């Protein structure tokens, strides 16, 4: 039974490594085409996430055990070694002999010639009875920079740890890094046009009722305490819920829409936030949803239909064109810019992202985000608001972007205090976020705070001419 979990984990990890797939997508596709027992699925998912998360720490320990280092090791063999060391070094309830045996059998089937090598390396690993933490401690020399030491111990790229240290200092950085290695939980957003979290939970019985709890982060959220195949959950088919991270659920309410608000969602993607806006508009809204990818907007429309929501128009376009598009100029009361970003806040849900992104890409994204924010400000009417959000923790894609645009706009755009529009529980923890002129203008929910993804959000208001001439903000 266990062998099946390990074979599946190997196949999924190889897909991610060789074809650049996202872990959640590769796992879902694998489970759809393979009939795995629930226990095997759970172990397979654990091995895939853990191996990807701890890849750097695992490689640091493996390197000296391989005579010629890891550089020339065949990808299939490397995947087998990494996933085996993950199980031996990080999982306590998995018998070592089974891991070793399955690794050698797997290697015989996939890369026969390397079976002896895999056996030898893993036996050396298990002969050394020290814990993984002790093995890593011995490898991390005191002479190396603190960021590199943290990066090896908690398994992240150096550049990301360096950036976090500058922003958050040692203690919070360690907490963020540790939180990024935990298992993600599933949260559901309850369709505000149809129900409430409390009513949803009360409508369930038995095990299902036990598995659901109210979110402490979002008034629209419900947490799932145990695994559930959401797509087979009745309320999902009935359009009562959507899968969404709880921190992400905080963004759309910052637009403060009612049923008349003309909304532009400039980077709508699959529409997780577009549909929330429509729900907040009472189920019949007025949203123009833009994305550069047609296929995403097709899925957005399907979601709106499943949820019974009306009033969304989709538009395939490069959002930057809104900067000069006369038809859309100042045509909206509220604009959401949920910008493309490095995703370095979604660490536990997409553990492979940390190995794919670079500081240079984050810098490029920062430039794109500024262009998109300029376009968003062109489309909003005087007096209207733009909510800017990302799922990254990096200041250059967050505070630096909005700061530069605000400076550029020279007084015609201002930050708004979003604190009153956040749930009490979130407000209470906002102690270390940026405060400008006595007003908290943005928050970054970090993953160690509530076990959610990391999210940045802020709200800007375009002042109307009268206000700029010295009048009151209406
Ligand atoms: C963070 S995702 C949006 C997620 C979405 N708001 C949600 O909640 O489901 C960013 C989106 O921006 C889109 N995008 C990237 N560059 C774009 C551009 N220049 N114009 C329009 N959309 C763009 C991507 O296709 C992606 O769907």
Automatic annotation (TrEMBL):
GO terms for cellular component: cytoplasm. NCBIfam families: PRK14902.1, rsmB. S-adenosyl-L-methionine binds at residues 291, 318, 338. It holds the Pfam family RsmF-B_ferredox. Its main location: cytoplasm. The active site is at 391 (nucleophile). This is 16S rRNA (cytosine(967)-C(5))-methyltransferase. Belongs to the class I-like SAM-binding methyltransferase superfamily. RsmB/NOP family. Its EC number is 2.1.1.176. Gene3D superfamilies: NusB-like (1.10.940.10), Vaccinia Virus protein VP39 (3.40.50.150).
């Amino acid at each position: 039974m266990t062998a099946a979990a390990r074979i599946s984990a190997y196949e999924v990890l190889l897909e991610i490594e060789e074809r650049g797939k996202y872990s959640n997508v590769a796992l879902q596709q694998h489970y759809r085409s393979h009939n795995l027992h629930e226990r095997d699925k759970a172990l397979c998912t654990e091995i895939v996430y853990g191996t990807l998360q701890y890849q750097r720490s695992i490689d640091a320990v493996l390197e000296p055990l391989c005579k010629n280092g890891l550089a020339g090791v065949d990808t299939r063999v490397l995947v087998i070694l990494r996933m085996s060391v993950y199980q031996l070094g990080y999982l306590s309830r998995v018998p070592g002999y089974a891991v070793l045996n399955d690794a050698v059998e797997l290697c015989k089937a996939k890369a026969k010639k390397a079976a002896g090598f895999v056996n030898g390396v893993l036996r050396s690993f298990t002969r050394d009875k020290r814990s993984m933490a002790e093995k890593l401690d011995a490898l991390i020399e005191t002479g190396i920079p603190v960021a590199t030491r943290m990066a090896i111990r908690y398994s992240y790229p150096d550049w990301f740890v360096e950036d976090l240290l500058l922003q958050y200092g040692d203690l919070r950085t360690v907490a963020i890094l540790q939180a990024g290695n935990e298992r993600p939980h599933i949260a559901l957003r309850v369709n505000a046009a149809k129900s409430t979290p409390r009513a949803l939970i009360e409508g369930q019985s038995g095990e299902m009722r036990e598995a659901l709890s109210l979110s402490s982060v979002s008034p629209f959220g419900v947490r799932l305490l145990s695994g559930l195949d959401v797509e087979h959950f009745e309320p999902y088919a009935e359009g009562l819920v959507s899968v969404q991270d709880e921190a992400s659920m905080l963004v759309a309410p910052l637009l403060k829409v009612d049923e008349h608000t003309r909304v532009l969602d400039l980077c709508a993607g699959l529409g997780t936030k577009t549909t929330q806006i429509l729900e907040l508009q009472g189920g019949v809204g007025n949203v123009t949803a833009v994305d550069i990818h047609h296929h995403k907007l097709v899925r957005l429309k399907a979601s709106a239909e499943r949820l019974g929501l009306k009033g969304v128009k989709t538009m395939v376009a490069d959002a930057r064109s809104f900067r000069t598009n006369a038809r859309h100029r100042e045509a909206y009361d509220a604009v959401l810019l949920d910008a493309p970003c490095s995703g370095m806040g979604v660490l536990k849900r997409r553990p492979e992202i940390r190995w794919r992104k670079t500081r240079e890409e984050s810098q490029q994204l920062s430039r794109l985000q500024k262009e998109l924010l300029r376009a968003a400000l062109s489309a909003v009417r005087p007096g209207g608001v733009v909510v800017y959000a990302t799922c990254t923790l990096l200041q250059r894609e967050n505070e630096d972007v909005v700061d530069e645009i605000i400076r550029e706009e020279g007084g015609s755009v201002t930050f708004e205090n979003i604190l009153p529009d956040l749930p009490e529980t979130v407000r209470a923890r906002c102690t270390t976020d940026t405060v400008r002129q006595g007003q908290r203008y943005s928050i970054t929910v970090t993953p160690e705070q509530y076990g959610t993804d990391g999210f940045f959000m802020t709200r800007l208001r375009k002042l109307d001419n009268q206000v700029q001439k010295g009048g009151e903000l209406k």
